[in-house]
Records
---
Amino acid sequence: MNREHLYRLLGYRFRDAALLERAMTHRSAGSGHYERLEFLGDSLLNFVVAQALYQRLPEATEGDLTRMRAALVREETLGAVAADLGLADFVQLGGSALKSGVYRRRSVLADTVEALIGAVLLDADIDTARECVERWWGERLITLPDPDTLKDPKTRLQEWLQGRSRPRPEYEVLEISGPAHQQRFRVCCRLDDGNEHVEGNGASRRGAEQNAARAMLEKLDA
């Protein structure tokens, strides 16, 4: 691993290079892997993002803050940060994992970002780790999404109905198919007061319900 190049990408130079090595090491490469650092970094990341949102959005509700934080610390966002930093080329893996291309999986890159945050915290202090998070997240902490766009379909459907004094929707599992390890759910979302109903499919009951709620919203909007 070219440490000097990685230092430049991160905008931070480790005093203890062993922490950097551990943060970039997948469990397939041995016992000195990043998972404990990942645990620490995940906790700090949630705090730093929560504090930033609290300070920048004084009028936002708790629910809005929670949804925006979730969007900023989810795997998809972490993977994008990892891509911005070019971390895929520095992850240390065991032979089998390297051959399978694990190092390019978004989940692994997301874990690596969290581990790096934890490593910076231990190598320096909380203020330095916060500065790294704010620099790595960049515009994501400034150009924030509309909280309403982050609500899941079931929540949006319920609020749509409540705003029109209509009763809550009912969800019913119509079918469960496939083997136990790969089940598919078919769910019906029904509005009894208007005799409206749609169906949704998914790999879990929750996912199918969300898809059914999304379909119902599209029907109501139409």
---
Amino acid sequence: MSAPSLSLPAPAKLNLFLHVTGRRPDGYHTLQTLFQFLDHGDTLDFSRRDDNRIHLLDDLPGVPPESNLIVRAARLLQEASGTNYGADIRLHKRLPMGGGIGGGSSDAATALLGLDRLWQTGLGVDELAELGLSLGADVPVFVRGRAAWAEGVGEQLSPVELDEPWYLVVVPPCQVSTAEIFSDQRLTRDTPPITLAAFREHGGRNDCLPVVTARYPAIRNTLILLNKYCEAKMTGTGSCLFGAFPNECEADKVRARLPATLQTFVAKGCNRSPLHLALDRAA
């Protein structure tokens, strides 16, 4: 008899704006941002083991298996739940590393939710989100699975309903170190807090953009190019850039005008995470 198995998406996210409002005594930055999911991302396949072993079948270049957020999430869930199960995990990687669209954080969240289901640990979303926060500030929003207004270090989440446009996402040929951007002395750290209503009326900006474009010419040049066709924005600390369109056709038209050497994809904005929709279908 084959072992129980499960295949789940690990969707991308966009930061529709990102304000850095301060810096705490412990060095972490306080933020305001708005998260929305995309119907595009990685896929994780899980197969239950009875020997407590976590076996990641696909290595990421430059990332030792025990440092991989998927493995760390699985170990954390084992410890928190006391389960004796393990898992074989296969990662189908589509999201770029260092792209600001949540690849590693989304993979970790999918591991927590997927293995919670596969192992029948029954921890629930609140406890899984708390576990996820210890892995990264972006993990809880993926665990909770709702487009959200975020404050604090990004963990104080309030679900929101947003328009769900189509997005063209462009991946410049570089990876951005989040730690480097947040330690750069040029980063603005005193943007006054705003409300969701103020954002809806006036919009927002990405405080990290000036630092990123100064450090990474490839991102600066790609931003200039994309701005010729739409209002181009950067997600998180980069490197990915995006523009919103009313439909898939309009996004594809602009995509076709960009150099073939640029990595791009078109995806639908989602207020409910594709991960949670998949879990509902698998219930």
---
Amino acid sequence: MRKKVGLLGGTFNPPHVGHLIIANEVLEALELDEVRFMPNKTPPHKQMDERVSEEDRIGMLSVAIDNHPKFQLELIEMERNGKSYTYDTIKLLKEREPKTDFYFIIGGDMIEYLPKWYQIDKLCQLVTFVGVRRPGYSVETSYPVRLIDTPEIHLSSSLLREKAATNGTLRYLLPDQVIAYIKENQLYEPRTGITDCERADH
């Protein structure tokens, strides 16, 4: 029997309730066996915020998903060097798990960006894209994307980092465990000369 696994990639800097809601909605809608949260090591089109280490991004994600039995961590991109191209990642996962069907979850912003993805035509043969709507973005595409209706929640990670840096409230925006992790490890403290960039994967 084949296994059905969702993949939700991102920097997760920090992981917020929007990530969790999307993952859970897709899990239920497609009757997946699990959803794996896959943090990027080096996204192809994003400047990373150097204030937060890879270990801390993994740590925040671990506590965020800890209480959901069908949420897992997938660290394949963290274990590799170089840019995290989805095509290379999926090829490796398919080689490791030939009896697994992968469903790659993307938001409306990434649906618009699909024509620019590395080896997109080959990638479409390896994975099923699952699209969720994001306010302000079109979901029209010539590529095969299975659309799932989910609550449209748009949370900017850069805004959340800014709120954390200025001691603004994060309640109901991040899981309580993530808020506690940020405070305990003093993450996102202000530092001059660093610019937060919006997420733009692949």
---
Amino acid sequence: MEIGIYTLGDLGPNPHTGETISTSQRLREIIELGKLADDAGLDIFGIGEHHRLDYATSSPAIVLSAIAQVTERIKLTSTTSVLSTLDPVRLFEDFATLDQISNGRAEIIAGRGAFVESFPLFGYDLSDYDALFEENIKLLQQLNREEIVTWQGKFRSNLKNAMISPRPIQEELPIWIGVGGTPESAARAGRLGTGLALAILGGNPMHFKPLVDLYYQAAIEAGHSRDSLRVAVTGHTYIAKDTQQAKDEFYPYYSNYWAYVNKQRGMETRMSRSDFEHMASPETALFVGSPQQITEKILQQHELFGHQRFIAQMDIGGQSFSDVAKGLELFANEVVPIVRRETSK
């Protein structure tokens, strides 16, 4: 199994001090986190895209290019690129450039996005939310296959013998579709033969099994080889020496995280400790606990989904960089080796 970490670059206040770090400091810390992940031997590092003042990363390709300069082997991906409002040509050329800079380490996870601020920002109608994504993902795949592209669609200007430059070092960029819980999105990933990246942020993982089954069914019906299909699972993660310590330390950050995310969506709600305890219980998808418990949860999900990649989000809720780095060290040293060993059997 490939294992890595990702960040959305959120700029939340530290719940203990009330202080929020600057965008420039957050970006420097993200670059350093990518270097630490590479040094620790992780396989993948991802950066999300948001167009808000309370997030630091509106352009994953630029930040990943900076990380490419201080890393050697780790794969670099968006988590995710909001393809409904991105020009597929611009997205492909940005990540093909990243692939050249990183010597063949670029990937794209494309999604429809959990926020909608990019629609008015780039002049798109929210009522075209799904149709935009469908058109753009198909064009992105064609750009990935062909150097000279002729194409006609509804939402952007047509292409006639357009040269798409640069070409990536890889024969094709790996493209995944990020899915939060929509059956139609899982089926689309299968139908188009992309990877499936599941964002499982809570609840019972069993609820996501039908999405994986639907992905494989749609792919096989569309004529794609089972061997070419890939599933990734992502999840919020916090690790400490023992589970009680992990829950005690993480609750203020996690409650804080959902407080400002819900506020961004127009809701004034906070997570109670009892709700958090339920979310962090052994049978749920929230990865909070000792290295042993985190390992067990990853392996339980692997038995359920048979996925090839796990990506943890470890830096949410206004945590200090030193705390995130400490969690990464535990993850890399005490979780990853066991997961790799057990999943390679």
